[in-house]
């Protein structure tokens, strides 16, 4: 929902972690007007990701954007140190957008050490559906938690296409992550062939419904959804903001049909070659709540540029 210069009639807080004072510091007070682009404001409690206000008598959920860097299979001890130092040095003015990184497994302990005491959470790029045992090469949810992970990516298109992960397996990974206390980032999206055949919505609905069937629609509120048009990942191509918004709106509508409150709260990232020069236009769309960033997350300047665009979209 896009509301420009709304009349704020009342500020609501769902817990003590959302003090009215924090809203007032941003000029969000009852009876005031404030240019909240896309009908959002920050919630000041990064772990929550949303807050409440009444605009002209209508309740609106204000989703905090999440920009998460998916480093894929990239990095070294030295490059990770340099990248994290650059991100930490530039994160100070980015106070409305949540920023996270998902390094390869072997660099998670390094991220934990170097990000300690910062507002930046970290996560894994994948996890096993098993808790332990003879599963060579796999990593359990409990192992990610041992190293302080908050997030874990499930169902990334590269896992689906290169390693044959189907909808049922991805749904189970979502369930395992959620049960362990991790926040799953559920990736959905179509290939170029599926886009050209006009079945984008069918594909995305099938991927989303697999999780809803297994866990129930309310489970989505415990995670994040990332729409990634597969044909735009690593190709330099990007869905136009209009095309991206169409799919994001479709996802939110599909959730709304089952639970409107969950649909208002759940964050839907865009994950198709977002860069500093297109981030602002993409995140100006009402249903795009940040980005799952691949290549651009490996350069601190580019990643921070995207984070700033998300921050400015509030």
Describe this structure in words.
Helix content is 38%, strand content 16%. The chain is of the alpha/beta class. It folds into two domains: 8-63, no CATH class; 66-312, TIM Barrel. Helix 2 packs parallel to helix 3 (108-115) and helix 6 (167-180) packs across helix 8 (200-215). The longest helix has 16 residues, at 200-215.
- Give the strand content: 15-25%
User: Whole-number average pLDDT?
Assistant: 85
Class based on secondary structure composition and strand pairing: alpha/beta
Largest sheet: 5 strands, parallel
Output the CATH homologous superfamily of the largest domain: Aldolase class I
**CATH first level of the largest domain: which class?**
Alpha Beta
How many helices does DSSP assign? 12
CATH architecture of the largest domain: Alpha-Beta Barrel
Comma- or semicolon-separated keywords:
five-stranded parallel beta sheet, 11 strands, TIM Barrel, disordered N terminus, 314 residues, 16% strand, three-stranded antiparallel beta sheet, 12 helices, 2 domains, alpha/beta
Q: SSE layout and pairings?
A:
Blueprint: E1 8-12, H1 20-24, E2 50-55, E3 58-63, E4 66-70, H2 77-90, E5 98-102, H3 108-115, E6 123-124, H4 141-146, E7 151-154, H5 157-163, H6 167-180, E8 183-188, H7 192-196, H8 200-215, E9 224-227, H9 241-256, H10 260-265, E10 267-270, H11 276-283, E11 290-293, H12 300-312
Parallel strand pairs: 4-5, 4-11, 6-7, 7-8, 8-9, 9-10
Antiparallel strand pairs: 1-2, 2-3
Helix pairs in contact: 2-3, 2-12, 6-8, 8-9, 11-12
